[in-house]
Amino acid sequence: MAKTNGINTSANPAMCLMLGMQESELIGMHRSELIHTDEARVAELLEERRISGKAKSELDLVKKDGTIFPPEVASSIISFKREGRKIKKTATIIRNITEHKEHVRQIIDTAQKLNMQKRLPELAIWN
Predict the structure, then answer these.
(1) In principle, which of 15, 36, 74, 108 could form an S-S bond with 11, CB 3.0–4.6 Å?
(2) How many CB atoms lie within 10 A of CB 55?
(3) Three-class SS of residue 73?
(4) What's the confidence (pLDDT) of residue 122?
(5) 72 CB-side CA count, 13 A
(6) How far apart are alpha carbons 3 and 29 in whole angstroms?
(7) How far apart are the first and last CA of the chain?
(8) Cα radius of gyration rounded to whole Å, the chain
């Protein structure tokens, strides 16, 4: 969970494990310290979330050790009342898709190799 200004207020164990951080390190951290994606793209997603109440995209995040990885991020604005005050927070689900992206890359590489093998007889030059 986070405030709508991007300050983390909590993190579940899966998020902590994914980023290599303790919850205490993540609480109070601004999203910009974790996102390694073009600012314009992030602004676009935040605007989409502001208008529709939700947004989903692939972004690059940075782990504590500096490793950059590609998760799918889905974020929604949640409104509720506490002690008579209207409060808005964001709930964000982050799914590490590193393995998925590697599998897609392998499929594309294999398809390209198969296509090249199919074309080799066409490219052969005979004396």
Answers:
(1) 15
(2) 20
(3) strand
(4) 66
(5) 6
(6) 11
(7) 70
(8) 21
